[in-house]
Design goal:
- The chain has 321 residues and is α+β, with helices and mostly antiparallel strands.
- It has 2 domains: 123 residues, Orthogonal Bundle (Helix Hairpins), CATH 1.10.287; 162 residues, Immunoglobulin-like.
- The protein has 6 helices and 14 strands.
- The strands form 4 sheets. Strands 1, 2, 3, 7 and 10 form a 5-stranded mixed β-sheet that branches.
- Helix 2 packs across helix 5 and helix 3 packs antiparallel against helix 5.
- 21% of the residues are buried.
- Keywords: Ion channel, Ion transport, Membrane, Potassium, Potassium transport, Transmembrane, Transmembrane helix, Transport, Voltage-gated channel.
- It is found in: Membrane.
- InterPro entries: Ig_E-set, IRK_C, K_chnl_inward-rec_Kir, K_chnl_inward-rec_Kir3.1, K_chnl_inward-rec_Kir_cyto, Kir_TM.
Length: 321
């Protein structure tokens, strides 16, 4: 069948766009720090460069303005005259003085004299403003660089989910794996079934979310993700797939969203990986190929068979039937 629109892509990206916010868009400015962190890298770098460039030019212009109003620019070479800032002759020299002060380079050629109270006040203002700008922008860049989003790239999900029997019960299963040697601490998995439905009152819910039990009561949803694991949802009378059969699967339209959360062992930050399975990606009567083998002193995982499945005898009837 032709691939339909997904709510969540296979790579975990949510296909939701917010429009016609109206006055609600001002909320983004009230939380400016998070807004900057959520921006793409090219916009972050552009804002970073523009903020520093504008701040430097404005502050340098203020130093040049003090020198111009005091007449220091015309008497800078007079040895008997005490200017506000020594050796500031024009705008480039005022800009260099600001950079030396802001970056605490301290070459010593340009300096504030004690007979310039307005220069001392401007110096204090520059120090406070520079600290605020540095803390805000550098903190924003650090948080953005340290986000564990790329850690999710090394968490794998099987391309398809399967329906087959396990321990005499019909189950919906998919596989997850961790490509890195560093572990995901306190890894937990959740599943949401997204399907349109109509309530008995006649209300239509286009994207109704229903929880799929993957072992909440038994603790099976808490994963020790050292090797690839097969996540199992038992189809019983409490499952939304209670009436699902091999024949009805061809006419159903649903999406299973899988959310894997855990703490990155190396950084201690929370990471989330997502994927989804549509009805076309659920294989009835299949089982995953084994990927673990015992070798000399260790267990080996063959990821070339990670997505592979094979057919097994499975009744085509629903659990209800």
């Amino acid at each position: 069948r032709r691939e339909r629109q997904r709510f969540v892509d296979k790579n975990g990206r949510c296909n939701v766009q917010h429009g016609n916010l109206g006055g609600e868009s001002s909320r983004y400015l009230s939380d400016l720090f998070t807004t900057l962190v959520d921006l793409k890298w090219r916009w972050n770098l552009l804002i970073f460069l523009l903020t520093y460039t504008v701040a430097w030019l404005v502050m340098a212009s203020m130093w040049w303005g003090i020198a111009y109003l005091r007449g220091d620019l015309y008497r800078a070479h007079d040895d008997t005259y005490s200017p506000c800032v020594a050796n500031v002759y024009n705008f480039p020299s005022a800009f260099l003085f600001f950079i030396e002060t802001e970056a605490t380079i301290g070459y010593g050629h340009r300096y504030i004299t004690e007979r310039c109270p307005e220069g001392i006040v401007l110096f204090l203002f520059q120090s406070l403003l520079g600290s605020i700008v540095d803390a805000f922008l550098i903190g924003c860049m650090f948080i953005k660089m340290s986000q564990p989003k790329k850690r999710a790239e090394t968490l794998m999900f099987s391309r398809a989910a399967v329906v087959s029997q396990r321990d005499g019960k019909l189950c919906l299963m998919f596989r997850v794996g961790n490509l890195r040697n560093s572990h995901m601490v306190s890894a937990q998995i959740r599943c949401k079934l997204i399907k349109s439905r109509q309530t008995p009152e006649g209300e239509f819910l286009p994207l109704d979310q229903c929880e799929l039990d993957v072992g909440f009561g038994t603790g099976a949803d808490q994963l020790f993700l050292v090797s690839p694991l097969t996540i199992c949802h038992e189809i019983n009378s409490k499952s939304p797939f209670f009436c699902l059969s091999q024949r009805s699967l061809r006419s159903e339209q649903f999406e299973i969203v899988v959310i894997l959360e855990g703490i990155v062992e190396t950084t201690g930050m929370t990471c989330q990986a997502r994927t989804s399975y549509t009805e076309d990606e659920v294989l009835w009567g299949h089982r995953f190929l084994p990927v673990m083998s015992l070798e000399d002193g260790f267990f080996r995982v063959d990821y070339s068979q990670f997505h592979a499945t094979f057919e097994v005898p499975t009744p085509p009837y629903s659990v209800k039937e």
